[in-house]
Amino acid sequence: MSKWNIAALALAVTLTVASVLLWLDHSWRLTPEFTDEIPIKRPPRLDQKQLLRFAGKSIPEIIASLQAERTTPAAEASVGPTDSTPMAPPFSVAESDSFAPRFESREMDLVGPFAVGQFDGDAGLEIISSGGKVISKISSSGEISSAPLPDVPAGDELIPADYNRDGALDLFIVRGGGLPNSLLRNDGTGNFTDVTIEAGLIEFSDTTTAAWLDYDGDGILDLLVGSHDHPLELYRQTATGIFQPIAWDLGLWVPRQVTSLGAADLDRDGWPDLYLGIAGAPDQLLRFRHAEIWDESRYEEYQAAFPPAATTSAAQPGFADFDNDGDLDLILSTGETGLLSLTINQGAEGFVERISDPDIDTVPLQPATAACFLDFDLDGYADLTTAAPGFLRALWNREGLTFRDVSKKSGIAALTGAARLYPGDLDRDGRPDLILEGADGVLHWSEWSIPDAHWLGLDLSGYPSDLRIEITTLDSDEVLRTIRRNLFNAKHLLVGLGTAQHVRSVELFSVSQDAPLASLNDVTSDQYLSLRQRLAEPGN
After folding, report:
1. Rounded CA gap, 425 and 527, in Å?
2. d(Cα 198, Cα 287) in Å, to the nearest integer?
3. pLDDT tens over the chain, length 540 residues
4. How many C-beta atoms lie closer than 10 Å to residue 540's C-beta?
5. Across-strand partners of 186?
6. How far from the centroid of its chain's Cα atoms is residue 82's Cα?
7. Taking the model in full, what pTM does it have?
């Protein structure tokens, strides 16, 4: 071979290698542009570069490194609407004079984001606050004692669940701005270990929210994660505690801007359905179609009529059985400029918006930044508390038929709004509590005072997270009544009984089964009881 041929061959090899390196560099830097159409092939991860960069590092180390690189301080969180004038409370002139409960403030020197649960294994509840950095014990007298949680970088949302079924409440911490989320495993005493990386959940995205659910009914919790800049992802948890991304396999595809999530079995077929709040696009209500071969299962649009679907965007969903008919209803709050919508689930007949019907309800649609169901008068029907810029509203559920505005009558109108609401019974005294996280992050604890109402508190530790509970009561007039509740990953439940002092039965069902998993007869009202412990007693 002549020297000219050798030189030409060397030049060709050099150019080929250079072209390959240039293509690899271009491919490395190129970010895929996802559209609303689901890709034919499994989409690549958008954070491969970060995954390789931080291989071998712990989550706290990664977060510390990323935060140190950001020379510009993060923008201060919004503290409310830009207009300094609060919105005028739209209280109804038909406010009821017969409403007796009153709203009372309690002391709480904590800041959000926060989560409530039984984290340390003792009786009573704890609050994890400051985005995951502080744990506080609540005594039966309402006193709060706090301690720091070491090595936990603060997050934007805290989502508790017993993901590994060891009886201890664990914690998933959501972080935005490209910081990785955290899965914290609880040892049962309130000591947490970050297992994000070993569980397969490390991701560098602008995460907005997440939700626990058992999508495939195997008794093991799975995790749904939404993001501003990455596609929606559903992680299936295996029996060994590893989370595998499977959203694309199930035809579940939203390329970006999922800002809120909700999971509940709306059609009572035993499989959780999904509500997806999407910024800049219509929200989606999806039904799960189960198949014997898992990757042939699919999420598809709900076929029943769903009125808000075409008009809501990025709504915050909440679920409760407003009318006690056994079908979960849906409350949507859509932010400062949006509206509150209560959509009633009529089973096979589909959905109907109830709160906006002037012929049925006295409460018009109003803007709402947050909303929650809480039976604040303990009559067995889920009442509604809503927050808007500058004020709160209390909407009294009148036996599943209508609402009455009792905001001024109850005293809740004196509060000045909230970004988040949490209903429960923090001190386990049978009086409904409400934690409000203000736009400034400060937490406020308020408690309802209800005369002449009875209640039952249930400790459901050790039971699956997707239970349906039916409580049958007998009042002084010998009238039987059934009150229905869904668990939604909670382990403690306060149920109002109205005037009934005697509980004929407490029954626990899996969502799709008619036969109870467990039942307890002849229970006295006005007490908390551990259902598992009570069922283990002789004679039960």
Report:
1. 12
2. 31
3. 565 555 555 555 454 544 544 444 444 445 667 888 899 999 999 999 999 999 999 999 999 999 998 865 444 433 333 343 444 444 443 455 566 677 777 878 899 999 999 898 777 889 999 999 999 998 878 889 999 998 899 999 999 999 998 888 999 999 999 999 999 999 999 999 999 999 999 999 999 999 999 998 888 999 999 999 999 999 999 999 999 999 999 999 999 999 999 999 988 888 899 999 998 888 899 999 888 887 788 998 886 656 555 456 677 888 999 888 888 888 887 754 556 777 888 887 777 776 544 433 445 556 677 888 999 999 999 998 888 777 788 888 988 888 888 888 888 866 766 778 899 898 889 999 999 898 888 998 988 888 788 999 988 777 776 778 999 998 777 788 999 888 776 778 899 999 898 899 999 887 667 788 888 899 989 999 887 656 555 555
4. 13
5. 192
6. 27
7. 0.86
Q: How far is CA 254 from CA 190, 247, 366, 410, 470, in A?
A: 36, 9, 29, 42, 36
Q: What's the burial of 249, exposed, middle or buried (CB within 10 Å: 0-12/13-18/19+)?
A: middle
3-state secondary structure of 365: coil
User: Quick one: residue 166, left, alpha or beta (phi over 0 = left, psi -120 to 50 = alpha)?
Assistant: alpha
Yes or no: say if 484 and 326 are a contact pair by the CB < 8 Å rule. Answer: yes
Q: What count of other Cβ atoms lies within 10 Å of the Cβ of residue 468?
A: 22
In the chain, the largest separation of any two C-alpha atoms, in whole Å, equals 111
Structure tokens at 293: 């071969």
- Coil, helix or strand at residue 48: helix
Backbone angles phi, psi at 473, to 5 degrees: -115, 160
Identity (one letter) of the amino acid at 147? A
Three-class DSSP category at 347: helix
332 by Cβ neighbours in 10 Å (0-12 / 13-18 / 19+) ranks as buried
Residue of 243, 152, 262 whose CA lies nearest to 203: 243
Residue 405 token pair: 């505005």
Residue 389 carries which DSSP code? T
The CA distance from 4 to 503, in Å, is: 99
List, as one string, the DSSP characters of 465-527: TTEEEEEEEE-TT--EEEEEEE-TT-SEEEEEEET--EEEEEEEEETT-SS-SEEEEEEESS-
* Helix, strand, coil percentages for the chain (3-state, nearest 5): 15, 35, 50
Distance CA 486, CA 266 (A): 11
Judge if the upstream peptide bond of residue 73 is cis by omega within 30 degrees of 0: no
Nearest Cα to Cα of residue 465 among 423, 529, 511, 507: 511
**Residue in the structure block whose two tokens are 């005369």:** 451
Q: Tell me the β-bridge partners of 510.
A: 467
